[in-house]
Design goal:
The protein has 364 residues and is mainly alpha-helical. It is built from 15 helices and no strands. The protein has a domain at 21-45 and 138-361. α7 (170-185) crosses α9 (215-241).
């Protein structure tokens, strides 16, 4: 997930020694077959886990947000803000599960997530549904048609810090998108087209343009967008009239910005970003993606809700987040040491950031 509003920034590429060799990797049939066979019975989501995790994350996140926004002690504000960021980030990350799940298997979860997270945080599920699935399409991954891919490892060094810093503007951008652009777009078909195509996707590819929804998807979109628009207008009105003190409003925006930055950092290390636009085999896509498995503990905070197994997720996207750990253990035990499966595991965030940073500095 970026996973902020579609950026219009154009990144210049740096020609590097990493190249796009991954596009020439043939599929490892033994790994793909094992992934399918060993995880078949793990594909059923557990409603109690989903609802319990989401409700607990929201309860902790919003509770800490209220403490941070109302406390006078700097120390209390700081601690509460950190707790709020981590908990709300976890709650937000369920948008990834919503985009993959069969909604009949978890009745009401999408509506519940939108009510608890999507609308309050101005990231309704339609911003990811219909977008993220394109990232998993075999012929689109890593190409110009992938909304969630940029060859960051092949770009100029300055693009990496810019990629992170620009995400801090996401809360303001989302307020503008829903409080200003949504209502105005009702008056202008041309503006409405631009809003749908360019400002309605949690994507990082600035060239991506999404299609307008149709049928039931459009009806859901309209309902949730209306709710998000009314909420965004209400937030601005409450801040402008003093119902929400400006200091508290600034803290809330700061926490939201920190959530966006944390998510962008996670996005930065979700892949190796070494493909130059050619279609890739499933194995190549897997090797361009990242697992950060145990015993490392911190990924549970910066890559929650199964995102620490991002490479594995690309092999078995239908397996729910709570089963990915077991799937990883099974595959690790079965597949021989020389299997490509083991080559997508890394030890932590510093190693991954360092690898991408070095790649941007290498010249051919």
């Amino acid at each position: 997930m970026s996973e902020a509003m579609t950026s219009t920034i154009t990144f210049d590429r740096a020609v590097t020694a990493t190249g796009a060799t991954s596009t020439r990797v043939a599929d490892d049939k033994a790994m793909l077959r094992a992934a399918a066979d060993l995880t078949r019975e793990l594909s059923q989501p557990k409603p109690a886990v989903y609802w319990g995790d989401l409700i607990a994350s929201c309860g902790i996140g919003y509770g800490a947000l209220v403490v941070a926004a109302s406390a006078s002690s700097t120390a209390i504000v700081t601690v509460a803000a950190i707790v709020s960021v981590l908990a709300l980030y976890r709650a937000m990350s369920f948008i990834h599960e919503v985009s993959h799940m069969k909604h009949s298997a978890l009745p009401g979860f999408r509506a519940g997530w939108n009510a608890l997270v999507g609308v309050p945080m101005l990231i309704p599920s339609f911003m990811y549904e219909g977008v993220h699935n394109l990232h998993h399409a075999k012929t689109r991954y890593g190409t110009a048609e992938d909304p969630e891919y940029l060859p960051l490892a092949l770009m100029k060094p300055w693009t990496l810090p810019l990629f992170i810093v620009v995400s801090a503007l996401a809360p303001v951008g989302l307020l503008i998108r829903f409080a200003v652009l949504s209502p105005l777009s009702l008056l202008s078909p041309r503006l409405r087209t631009a809003v749908v195509e360019r400002f309605s996707a949690l994507a990082i590819n600035p060239q991506f343009r999404r299609r307008a929804p149709e049928g039931e998807a459009k009806r859901l979109w309209d309902r949730v967008e209306t709710a998000a628009s009314l909420w965004a207008i209400a937030l601005i009105a409450m801040a402008a009239t003093g119902i929400i003190p400006l200091r508290s409003f600034a803290i809330i925006l700061g926490i939201a910005a920190a959530v966006a930055v944390l998510n962008q950092v996670r996005t930065l290390v979700a892949h190796l970003w070494e493909n130059e636009g050619e279609p890739m085999s499933v194995t190549a896509q897997y090797l361009d993606s990242v697992n950060v498995p145990p015993p490392t503990l911190l990924p549970g905070l910066w890559a929650p809700v199964g995102l620490r197994y991002h490479a594995l997720h690309h092999l078995i996207p239908s397996v729910p987040y709570h089963a990915l750990g077991e799937a990883h253990r099974r595959l690790t035990a079965l597949l021989e040491p020389g299997s490509p499966y083991h080559k997508a595991s890394y030890t932590g965030l510093p190693v991954l950031v360092g690898r991408i940073a070095r790649s941007t500095m290498i010249r051919r």
